[in-house]
Specification:
The structure holds two protein chains of two kinds. Chain A is built from two helices and 18 strands. Chain A is mostly beta strands. By secondary structure, chain B is an alpha+beta fold. Classes of the chains: A mainly beta, B alpha+beta.
Chain lengths: 296, 434
């Protein structure tokens, strides 16, 4: 009996020992993505977000603020509204982009409408809960004092919640000038692209479509800090390129400018770079706007 | 068949007959039962010959009730050592004590009967020398005298340790087999005439008398085999305690697994050598040197530059971190403890627990359970199931010093952590008793 007990103990020990392979934890996978997560949050804008902008070799700080989350003023431009933002879970649209702010266009160029250009598709996810009250009558059978069966009616009201999730697709008529679709949730994946807007200006009177392409989607992003102490490490981020591109069969030369923007979750754009085609036929970094930190 | 078994147990069977008998026994349960019956009888017989030790108080009480015992006086003490082991053995067994007491009482009764026989069978002791002038009166103080009988001798026993000058010229004393103890007090009283007409040196032909208890303690208490294997291979405790062995292990190791990845296993054929020392037939310690499987965790970074429109040297570095778990065969040294069930059997159950180090990895522990087949007195075949675990330390994070500019990182490095690799295997090998 004692030996059997010993043997059982050994077997129990072996069974506990035999928990097979060790699970190794890895950092959690990315959370579901919404476009708004990667752009400025209204709370951030009310406090201000500070950027360092280097343009033509000269650096300056631009403190962006907004009281309504849409109209964004630039402290370096006397707090004038330099852009209007429409952000939702599905898309982030930049409207009325001015000049010399963190998003900038060369002099004489603008985002405009063109009926021949593809329309901008915007999807909105709508969740609606509807409370429905149903009146239910229930019957039960009882016996009266004489022993006969009688039917008794009970009325009951039952509440039912009906949730309806709809995706509304809107084709922006693109009749208003200056719109650029910065983020589109359904296309936010590496290699995906979408039509972001139409660029007009000298040499392209009929406009040139601007295509946004997701170059990279990373778990974390590190940028060389604009100055000591500046924010430089961020979480999940997208690297998106905005490039005016002529159709292949158009025979026109490529537009000499493109932009690359880095968006980080819960922060917004952390770095915006403008590349310009040089005389030797290569693009080089000519302007950059980099986040420094939260406003004072 | 029974005669052959008896001859076998007496050791008088020839080699060929012995082998033939063992072969017969191995295939016949009925004849083996007969053998076991004889073995039990042999045990009982050996038990009956075993001397026992009883507490002094018991002996004193017995001496009070049976005065003849008290006359041994101090002679009781020297014999106690011979029984101490037996007393310890039965000390914790009330039934054993009772049996010992009964045996002692039976022995005493038998002794008393023998004493009576002596008196009645040896009247010449007191009759023929009745008129000796050298007779010394021994009445009163008891004298420690032991008499020894020999079945082959007709010598009259002489007295040892007594002051009396007992002389004896008698040659026709009745003999008796076995041993017993006597005293001069057994002789008749003072009225008994002296028995000796000769001096002590004239009785040199007589056999010296030894203490019968001491003589009793000298009876070998041999081990009786209980199984056919014990007969064939010998008593487990009497075999050489040192064994060395070599084994092959068919091993399957379960490597640590990422929560997002599939299970990876490693199948290997490993070797090891063992050396064990039996502390008891059941318990042994030893060392094991062999191979095992361990795993390691590393982060591997792949750096690529993102291709920009026409400028491949854009200021962006993409880093892809991959956590990689890799398995490897390592060498280990373990201290082993083994407990063997049924060590006297042909098939022994062997349980073990080992602990030690896996070189290049970390601590290692092992649990084993298996069957050992006794092939020959010095050769065993082991088939053992093994469960083992090797612990390893996690590797340090790697640096991305070669990355430049904006760095996009895919796959965060898995933090360093202690890991273990569990393995299950079947080991088969041979052990040789040196």
């Amino acid at each position: 009996m004692k030996r059997a007990g010993t043997f059982a103990l050994v077997m129990i020990f072996a069974a506990g020992f035999a928990s097979c392979s060790q699970p190794i934890g890895v950092p959690p996978s990315t959370l579901p993505i919404t476009a708004q997560d990667f752009f400025w949050q209204p709370a951030q804008l009310s406090g201000g977000v500070n950027y360092n902008v280097v343009r033509n070799g000269v650096g300056s700080n631009h403190l962006l603020r907004s009281h309504d989350g849409h109209h964004i003023g630039d402290g370096a431009l006397n707090n004038e509204v330099t852009m209007v933002v429409h952000a939702s879970a599905d898309s982030v649209l930049l409207d009325s982009m001015g000049v010399n702010s963190i998003f900038s266009l060369p002099s004489g160029y603008y985002f405009g409408a063109d009926s021949s250009a593809p329309k901008i598709l915007v999807r909105d996810t709508i969740v609606s809960d509807t409370m429905v009250r149903d009146t239910v009558v229930r019957d039960s059978v009882r016996k009266d004092t004489s022993g006969n069966n009688i039917i008794v009616h009970y009325t009951q009201i039952i509440d039912t919640v009906i949730r309806i999730t709809t995706i509304q697709e809107r084709f922006m008529p693109d009749t208003s000038a200056g719109r650029l679709l910065l983020l589109l949730r359904t296309a936010m994946d590496s290699g995906r692209s979408w039509h972001a807007g139409m660029l007009f200006g000298p040499g392209i009177p009929s406009g040139m479509p601007v295509t946004a392409t997701v170059l990279d989607h990373v778990d974390s992003l590190r940028i060389p800090p604009a100055r000591p102490g500046a924010d430089s490490t961020f979480g999940e981020s997208f690297q998106i390129r905005y490039a005016p591109q002529q159709p292949v069969d158009s025979g026109s030369a490529a537009f000499p400018i493109y932009w690359i923007a880095y968006y980080s979750r819960n922060v917004g754009p952390v770095l915006i770079e403008q590349y310009t085609l040089g005389l030797i036929g290569q693009y080089s970094l000519t302007e950059r706007a980099q986040i420094i930190g939260r406003g004072p | 068949m029974e005669d052959k078994i008896l001859e076998y147990l007496e050791g008088s069977l020839g080699e060929s007959e012995r082998a033939e008998l063992l072969e017969t026994l191995s295939v016949s349960p009925e004849k083996r039962a007969l053998l076991e019956e004889h073995l039990r009888l042999k045990d009982l017989f050996a038990l009956g010959r075993k001397p026992f030790s009883v507490p002094v108080e018991t002996e004193r009480e017995l001496a009070r009730r049976i005065p003849i015992i008290g006359r041994y006086g101090d002679n009781l003490a020297p014999t106690r050592w011979a029984f101490s082991g037996v007393r310890r053995f039965i000390g914790s067994r009330p039934i054993g004590v009772a049996a010992a007491a009964m045996l002692l009482l039976a022995g005493l009764g038998w002794y008393t009967m023998q004493q009576s026989n002596y008196v009645t069978k040896s009247p010449s002791i007191t009759i023929r020398d009745r008129n000796s002038t050298n007779w010394t009166n021994t009445t009163g103080a008891p004298h420690n005298i032991a008499l020894q009988y020999s079945s082959a001798s007709t010598n009259f026993p002489t007295a040892l340790g007594a002051s009396s000058h007992v002389r004896s010229g008698l040659r026709n004393v009745r003999t008796s087999s076995g041993s017993n103890a006597h005293s001069l007090a057994l002789l008749p009283s003072t009225s008994t005439p002296p028995i000796a007409e000769h001096t002590a040196d004239e009785t040199s032909a007589l056999t010296p008398i030894a203490d019968l208890r001491e003589s009793s303690s000298n009876i070998p208490i041999g081990h009786s085999a209980h199984t056919l294997e014990e007969i064939q291979f010998g008593e487990p405790g009497k075999l050489s305690p040192l064994t060395i062995g070599a084994s092959l292990i068919l091993d399957e190791s379960y490597l640590p697994t990422f929560s997002t990845g599939p299970q990876h296993t490693l199948q290997t054929l490993l070797e090891d050598v063992t050396m064990d020392y039996d502390l008891t037939p059941n318990f042994s310690v030893g060392i094991e040197l062999g191979e095992g499987a361990s795993s390691s965790l590393t982060n591997i970074s792949q750096l690529t530059n993102s291709m920009q429109l026409t400028n491949p040297s854009a200021d962006y570095t993409r880093v892809v971190n991959n956590g990689v778990v890799s398995g490897a065969t390592i060498y280990d040294a373990l201290l082993a403890l083994h407990f063997t069930l049924f060590p006297e059997g042909e098939y022994q159950v062997r349980l073990g627990a080992d602990g030690g180090t896996a070189f290049g990895a970390g601590p290692m522990a092992e649990a084993t359970a298996g069957i050992s087949r006794v092939l020959a007195p010095n050769l065993l075949l082991d088939v053992t199931a093994i469960a083992s675990r090797v612990w390893t330390k996690g590797s340090s994070p790697i640096s991305n010093s070669s990355a430049e500019g904006v760095i996009g990182i895919v796959g965060t490095q898995v933090p360093p952590q202690s890991m273990y690799t569990t393995a299950f295997g079947v080991r088969a090998g041979l052990r040789i008793r040196l």
